[in-house]
Amino acid sequence: MVQKEKKSPEIKSEAPKRRGRPRSYEPDVALGKALDLFRKDGFAATSLDELSAATGMNRPSLYAAFGDKRELYIKSYERYRADARASMIELFRGEVPIRERLKRIYAAALDIYLADASEPRGCFTVMTAASEAVADPEIRAMVLDGFGELDKAFASCFRRAREKGELPASADPLALAQLASATIHTIAIRSRARVPRKELEAIVSGAIGVLCGPVAN
Known about the structure:
Helices cover 66% and strands 0% of the residues. It has 217 residues and is an all-alpha fold.
């Protein structure tokens, strides 16, 4: 009588266990919180403890995710510029008369600067990055790039308006663009100082009159 061989029990291989704790934060959300804090208080006045509290991340986690405080500031500035660009790009590209286009652009800018009615924060570039640009070449390059980008966007608007006969042939698109950008910076500073929106809109109206000339009867 032949005995059946006993089969050895199968050994199931276990999946390797994951090491370390799972990431418990959303990078975009955390960066947005840091951006809000830097935009409100600037670089120097914002402490790592405040950033940790705002993002819900301890210091080692902050360093691992974003680098040191300066790197987090730069990433926050990049995020601000990307968000602002996305919210306004179609206003610069749309085919509407120059006067109406400028009204829409400035209205959108005021919406950004006055988003928090109880604590208006103005523009990140003008209110905080420009101060850091004095001593930091990388931030200075970013600020200048932002100025140049805005000037080019406005210049394109004025160039198209000149081609359509909305502006005289002698109009200088770049010079007008720099004045238009300066108006953006002015309302950003004044909005941070809590100048009422009605007064800011009056400044915008006067600027558009200078940029486009008097309204034809």
